[in-house]
Amino acid sequence: MTLRFNDETFRGDYTFRNSPQAVRRFPFPFDQDSYMYSVNLELHKGGRAGSVFENRFDVDEHYVAEMRDREITLAEDPLRCQSLPHMELAGWDFLELVMTTKAEDYPDLFTLHRDGDRWHWINRPLNIEQRFTFLDATTLPCGPMEYITRQTQGDHALLDQRDGNLWMDAGMITSQADWSLDFDIGMNFFEWHAPVPKAHEMGVFQRALKFLLNLQQGAPVRRLNWTMTVNPRLDTSPENYHKWGPEKRTITPGNVGEKQFLRVELQTLWRLPRSNAIAFPIRCYLCSLEDIVTVPKWGRRLHRVLRDLPEELATYKGFAVNRPMIVDYLAQFDDGAETSPGIFPD
Amino acid sequence: MITQMLRVAAITPLSSYVTRFRFEHPEGAALPVFSGGAHVVVEMPDGAVLRRNSYSLISDPVDSSGYEIAVRREDAGRGGSRYMHSRLRLGDLLRVTVPVNLFSLDLRAKRHLMIAGGIGITPFLAQLKQIARLHAPFELHYAVRSRDEAAALPLLPDLPQVHLHVSDEGNRMDLGAVLAGQPLGTHVYTCGPEGLIDAVAETAARLGWPKGALHSEAFLSPPPGAPFDVTLARSGRKITVGPHQSLLEALEAAGVQPDWSCRGGACGRCETAVIRCDGHIEHHDHWLNDAEKASQTRIMPCVSRFSGADLALDL
Q: Which residue in A17, A24, A68, A223 is the catalytic one?
């Protein structure tokens, strides 16, 4: 596979674009014509060739640009990356996981040589070559989690497991759907999920936590989550709400197809061996409505899902204000035909 | 559970009752590393019965060349430890699960205080190696009745932080003294008989320790009991659980495969819904809370039993 990396921006002039291939492999999150929360976890053991599920850490045409955008966000606000002191071992676990899997899955892009604890890492797309001593943080330019997550698409939280709960004790969070690591750091699973409507009463978090506490080494799981974002912006953080919040009001019937994006998170969960912590990468994919509707099945289904979504979910996901315009736009692509099961294009 | 077939690479008696077993990959492949306190489940094909027992890993967590466990022979037990001691030979292949840790170190601790009763020393052997690498302060107390019971003594580092208490020699562990002298930020880990775990919890509470600083692991063997019948509601089948069999084992013998992990009432993985219960569920697990146990709507088939007229499960 040869990948060509886009030269594009996720702020200011917003030059982000999906190639036709990127649209076809977009992880459309709805497997039926309606949506409600569920513990929709499945094993993360590969998937359809070419899909975002195929490799353990998906690398796509946006890789280089996303890492550049992360650099800008971190320069403006270093607290987007934090690791409590007891999480350094988990950081090394995660660095090892990413380096070994990327080198196996993308040998043309990444190489890892290991001679005992002396490691040599080559990241060709980002032009990085680093020799360091595994488990010796003084041999890296920054902590192990920060080092590897500056080179890995998606946000990444490291969850400590103790007292029958999971604790958000480290993370690199620069492309989030309106939540703050600086606010959530040190919280447990129920605390950081407290703002989510409905799911608590459904017992979703109790069941999900029980499942995750038993997550096994070598058996990572995944789920898709989604929201809506105006403009292809990765950094939709509470810290910068004053920058992106007002953009919600720039949607018109004439530009909704181009400016309104379906934002999908491919969330994976991995048991880390040395620390017994859980790594929680949250990979963000953006696709404009006008690109979504190039897949007729997706245009029909997205119309039905958003039309019928309970109001509190639209409010929580932050697009209630634009919902009528979005649904009107999508309606023209819904001829009422039946849709096939599953998320993939026909 | 993910399992791998491993070869018995060494069998070393540590005392009259305790033997160390080493497992390696048959082709010499690296095994997944783990964290101190992790256990594996070993599958033993004992004639018509497939036994599965959990054992703490005692080898260095970052040594991927092999896994080591120490097994105490329980002559009055259900047969797993007897199988390991009398039937297992060098070179035999056994199915072993990936490591799972329900008793990991709290890496926030300023100091780790470990209290082992008898064979409960096993998880600490791996934790000590992890702690040495973290350069964290620690203290270990190893309580045994007699010196012969202190099978792990040769495996412990010769350090002033390691204390042996032999009650036969008039050197009984004084929990009050051990727990009273600890600086703030210390976490205490207890592994051994339930009585020891309860005693540590009571003493710590009396001394004002925060609950979050107490950790313990009491792996249960499925207790024997009177045989009982269970109805599997989805198929209407009826199965009988024998006196020395667990409900989980009876289900497996009948071809039903519930999910499981620790098989000791601790992890929660085999939790099963009860459809009807005319009688009394003997809950032996550490997973369900008191209200859930009293409601008799859930059961942990790995360790819990039933007495009464009718028990139907959602299986």
A: A223
Can you identify the CATH homologous superfamily of domain B228-313?
Beta-grasp domain (3.10.20.30)
Mark yes or no for CB contact B106/A162 under 8 Å: yes
> Which residues share a beta bridge with B54?
B41
In whole angstroms, give the CA distance from residue A157 to residue A171.
4
Residues in chain B: 315
Architecture, CATH, for domain B3-101: Beta Barrel (2.40)
Measured between alpha carbons, how far is A192 from A184 in angstroms, rounded to an integer?
A: 6
Structure tokens at A258: 């181009």
Residues 6 or more apart whose Cβ sits within 8 Å of residue A339: A32, A33, A297, A300, A301
Fold of B111-217: Rossmann fold (3.40.50)
A223 is known as an active-site residue: yes
- Residue A225: what pLDDT? 93
Residues 6+ apart with CB under 8 A from B111: B136, B137, B138, B139, B182, B183, B185, B186, B187
Instruction: Determine the distance in angstroms separating the CA of A259 from the nearest CA of chain B, rounded to an integer.
Output: 45
Tens-digit pLDDT profile for residues B120-159: 999 999 999 999 999 999 999 999 999 999 999 999 999 9
What ipTM was predicted for this assembly? 0.88
Note the pLDDT tens digit of each residue in A4-15: 999 999 999 999
Mean pLDDT computed over B301-305 = 94
